[in-house]
Amino acid sequence: MDNNEKVFDIIQFTGDKTLYYGASINMPDILLSQGNYKKHTEVEIPLGHSRYGGPVVDLPPGITYPQGLRFAAQLDLSKFSPFDKTGLLPKSGQLIFFADILTDTGKVIYADIDNKDLVRHIKEHEDNFFSGMLVDEVFAGTETLSERFYEAEDEEEMEDANEDGMLWDYFAGSDKSKIFGIYTHCQLGQEEIEEISFSDKVVLLQVGENDFNDVGVFSVLISKSDLGNRIFDNCEFAWGQS
Asked: Which InterPro entries is this protein grouped with (predicted)?
């Protein structure tokens, strides 16, 4: 089968549009005037609810907030695993992500724990991931590499087009937030994206520009063998932004 037509099953998710931030932070009026920013104390955040960024993180008992990293995301796998056609994800528990996007480093914590047993931590800051958004809807989807191309529109573009008159779109896929599927990074070309997407690596998390990020895509990769064995120490972290 042509790689461009291979269908990838993915798990997509969207945000609830409300951005919350640390209650003690003095937010600029220009941001507050947009109307979708609220202090974290004004937002109902259920224990263990899936979310992206912000000052509120729910950790397993005995686990501390990693030094030098910022809370990036928390996934309640009981809401995601019903849409997992690969069978790779744990059926229950929490995946919790911390990262430093300036160095492309991070940490992933997995705990098969009931939400009610999590311990809430509040860490207000003004760095990357300072604001948070709750995950709203989770659903199954598909994608193909052919969606990463667009048709050349003039003679100049035709000079760089492939034999079908199509050009690689470096920004295609950036509007999705998902698990699995084709890797997304606007600074990588077709060959680099294909090498990753058709390897043993899978997208454990991609948070894109559909609701969560104004610009940029946060991604975490893991090998299929590590995911199957519940080993999260070797994940790769990346922030892609033009």
From this structure: DUF1963, YwqG-like_sf
Distance, in Å, from the CA atom of 17 to the CA atom of 36, rounded to the nearest integer, reads 7
pLDDT tens profile 173-210: 999 999 999 999 999 999 999 999 999 999 999 999 98
List helix spans (H) across the chain: 29-32, 77-80, 155-158, 190-197, 224-228
CB 52 within 8 A of CB 96: no
CA distance 186 to 169: 8
Distance of alpha carbon 30 from the chain centroid: 27
Contact criterion met (CB below 8 Å) for 80 and 138: yes
Q: How far apart are CA 56 and CA 20, in angstroms?
A: 9
Instruction: Evaluate whether 217 touches 170 at the Cβ level (below 8 Å).
Output: no
- The model's pTM: 0.94
Give the pair of three-digit tokens for residue 152.
């050349």
